Amino acid sequence: GAGVSQTPSNKVTEKGKYVELRCDPISGHTALYWYRQSLGQGPEFLIYFQGTGAADDSGLPNDRFFAVRPEGSVSTLKIQRTERGDSAVYLCASSLGSGNLDNEQFFGPGTRLTVL
Amino acid sequence: SQKIEQNSEALNIQEGKTATLTCNYTNYSPAYLQWYRQDPGRGPVFLLLIRENEKEKRKERLKVTFDTTLKQSLFHITASQPADSATYLCAHDSSYKLIFGSGTRLLVRP
For A50, how many CA atoms within 13 A lie in the half-sphere containing its CB? Predict the structure, then answer.
């Protein structure tokens, strides 16, 4: 596809359940980022992949959050034992090159996660 | 800790006027600042990047300035149009990630 795609667009789950959020970056983009955005706030960094490896996961809030990118393309963000505070829009972005910050990041439309 | 701040109050202006949005940063000297536009229900869209050694950058009706002494970037939209109504986010680099401000909502009245 032409841009970054994310599925599902909306996810409603119950407290304590496990969820997976998927990101398809732009073909050829080696850098992939996950962010979380709460209402009225800017995106908050979670994790950055360069190829298959997580180069920086310092933004993951706790060990319930985990992300993978096994083949260096599609990435999955996994949240275990969801809590109501996890409710937010989860954004994925990709960029060319080695993650230099002078490369613009292309964002997907996000997955709106609601934990009841 | 690194902080980047934008005016949380919405900016409401008349069509045709120049909109000026402010981004301030503290406790850090970023090499770049980026500006993004975000519409409701969508991801941010990149607009402009300005480097620390550039004082000003332009793209069509957009202009960004970077004042490293004031630790501030200004984002201008000239001849504003209702279609410019959106939230505008600034972000600075920190290692390999972007730190975003909370965004300023711009409303351009016809």
Answer: 9
> Hey, is the C-beta of B53 within 8 angstroms of any chain A C-beta?
no
Rounded Cα–Cα distance for residues B27 and B44 (Å): 25
Average pLDDT value for residue range A98-104: 62
Would you state the structure tokens that stand for residue A68, as one six-digit string?
């993978």
The residue of chain B with its CA nearest to that of A4 is: B43
Chain B positions in Cβ-Cβ contact with residue A110 (cut-off 8 Å): 42-43
In chain A, how many H helices and how many E strands?
Answer: 0, 11
Is the minimum CB–CB distance between A106 and chain B shorter than 8 Å?
yes
Q: What is the pLDDT of residues A21-74, one digit of tens each?
A: 999 999 989 999 999 999 999 999 999 999 899 889 999 999 999 999 999 999
Neighbouring CB atoms inside 10 A of B75's CB total 25
Give every CB contact of residue A5 below 8 A, 6+ residues apart in sequence.
A23, A24, A108, A109
